[in-house]
UniProtKB/TrEMBL annotation:
Keywords for the protein's UniProt record, in alphabetical order: DNA recombination, DNA-binding
Residue ranges annotated for the Tyr recombinase domain, each copy included: 160-339
Entry-linked Pfam families: Phage_integrase (PF00589)
Organism for this UniProt entry: Bradyrhizobium barranii
Protein name: Site-specific integrase
Domain of life per record: Bacteria
Length: 375
């Protein structure tokens, strides 16, 4: 039997099938009502709302059904939003809230491609890309919920990003300076060794722990970035440098090697802030945590690893993403081989790059040149 609602009460059923009740007089704010209709808890909140005493947050206003704001409220409570990676939510939440603040009163069905193009027009190329990714995900959810018929983000163009090469790759000199600053036994050193020797992102370095290591191998670990998209698992033997760093720690967590001073697992954002501070204190302001992952792949490529071998470590699905590392390493090897041919020296081309360079130097009798020295 359908239960009759008190005056000015609306009933909605959310995506999980749970009923929601709101009090709203014409033109007034929507005030959520707890409990079931006519219960003591419900009626106490109803009476307070009817008398204008409901707990209405500062800035609360009428939420119009079919508006952008109403859709965003549903989106932020949906599984589509919650199942995104934490880093994606942290990046996109300010964008969605800004979109809600600027355009929330407008009808969602009136949103067109030209509007989205105009919204992102005055932003930097990187900001345009981030805004479009956030709005596309929102629009995809809205289409599945039948709130809009077509995707207003389809065909929207972003400005071309300048080719910066992304995060700077650490050099071996950077690593040496950092290690000199932070000896074994401390969290700064362990953080570096985790990312450098496993090739993982900071979002994974924060949560890898004893349960992930079996017989000296990081076993069947699925990086966080690929967990919502069925990404590949990785199996990476623990390098001796990492094993020493873990063993040297006086305190590690039960589920994560890296823990805060309170014994909690780091969030990616909090660990990233610490890495920024640690690098700055080591006089390495140009270095970032992601640059360690890139150096790991550079080392593998220069040791002669194939793109597929790199992918088994990095977890990449796209071959093109890792081919850049092997291509750069191949060019460096070819340069040594070419100069050896010019000098009439036969080298074992199967050697990794560093050994090949050593062999060339030994064969030519050339001494390393130190910048800034006088003849």
């Amino acid at each position: 039997m359908k239960l009759k609602m008190p005056p000015y009460v609306d009933r909605f059923v959310d995506r999980g099938g749970a009923p929601r009740y709101y009090f709203r007089k014409r033109g007034g704010p929507r005030i959520p009502l707890p409990g079931l209709p006519w219960s003591a808890e419900f009626m106490a909140a109803y009476k307070a709302a009817a008398e204008g005493q409901g707990a209405v947050p500062k800035g609360t206003h009428a939420i119009v059904r079919g508006s952008v704001e109403a859709a965003i409220i549903g989106y932020l409570g949906s599984n589509d939003w919650k199942q995104q990676a934490q880093t994606s939510r942290e990046l996109r939440k300010p964008i969605i809230e800004r979109f809600r603040l600027d355009y929330g009163v407008h009808k969602l069905r009136a949103l067109r491609r030209s509007h989205v193009q105009q919204i992102i027009a005055d932003k930097t190329p990187s900001a345009q890309s981030n805004w479009l990714k956030a709005l596309r995900h929102f629009a995809g959810w809205a289409m599945r919920e039948n709130l809009i018929a077509t995707d207003p983000c389809a065909g929207v163009q972003t400005a071309r990003k300048p080719q910066t090469g992304g995060f700077m790759t650490w050099t071996e000199a950077h690593v040496a300076s950092y290690r000199d600053m932070y000896p074994l036994g401390g969290k700064p050193r362990l953080a570096l060794e985790l990312m450098l020797n496993l090739g993982v992102r900071i979002s994974d370095a924060r949560q890898i722990g004893p349960q992930h290591i079996q017989n000296g191998v990081l076993t069947d670990y699925r990086p966080q970035k690929g967990r919502t998209t069925n990404g590949l698992t990785i199996n990476v033997p623990v390098h001796g440098d990492l094993a020493k760093a873990i063993t040297a720690m006086k305190v590690t967590g039960a589920t994560s090697f890296l823990v805060t001073s309170e014994g909690n697992v780091y969030t990616a954002k909090y660990l990233g802030q610490h890495m920024r501070e640690w690098c700055n204190d080591a006089k390495l302001p140009e270095c970032t945590s992601h640059g360690l992952r890139k150096l790991c792949l550079v080392r593998l490529a220069e040791a002669g690893c194939s793109p597929h071998e790199l992918m088994s470590i990095s977890g990449h699905k796209n071959l093109k993403e890792v081919e850049t590392y092997t291509a750069a390493a191949s060019r460096k090897k070819l340069a040594v081989i070419a100069m050896a041919k010019r000098a009439g020296i036969a080298l074992d081309v199967s050697l990794p790059l560093d050994k090949l360079r050593e062999a060339y130097t030994a064969a030519t009798g050339a001494a390393p040149v130190i910048a800034g020295t006088a003849a």
